[in-house]
Design brief:
With 118 residues, the protein is mostly beta strands. The chain has no helices and 11 strands. Strands 2, 4, 5, 6, 9, 10 and 11 form a 7-stranded mixed β-sheet that branches. The chain has a 4-stranded antiparallel β-sheet with strand order 1-3-8-7, with no helix packed on it.
């Protein structure tokens, strides 16, 4: 399986970005696809997760109400719409996937960098 994250960039505080995670080699089914973010010197943080065939979603408290995860099963792509961005959202954003019905995120994309300026 391959995951390709894209859509990162530089944005001012209060702005928006949409990240995409294109998944190949995996039919979503009941796989979970999640977005994580990594800041140097800090633990990787899981921020949003979706189970594609049920559309169940989970968000971390740090992004709840500002970020939205959505799945386009026809395109095998998961999106992360990020609104009301803050400087503390600056990080490398990575997407990851489980096998159908699995619980471990075994497959990871390469990450896309988001920088939010104040």
């Amino acid at each position: 399986f391959q995951l390709q994250a894209s859509g990162g960039g530089l944005v001012q505080a209060g702005g928006s970005l949409r990240l995409s995670c294109a998944v190949s080699g995996l039919t979503f089914g009941n796989s979970a696809i999640a977005w994580f973010r990594q800041v140097p010197g800090k633990e990787r943080e899981g921020i949003a997760c979706i189970v594609s065939d049920s559309d169940d979603t989970v968000y971390s408290d740090s992004v709840k109400g500002r970020f939205t995860i959505a799945s386009d099963n026809a395109k095998n792509t998961v999106y992360l719409q990020m609104n009301s961005l803050k400087p503390e959202d600056t990080a490398v954003y990575l997407c990851a996937a489980t096998l159908p019905g699995g619980a471990s995120f075994r497959y990871w994309g390469q990450g896309t960098e988001v920088t939010v300026s104040s």
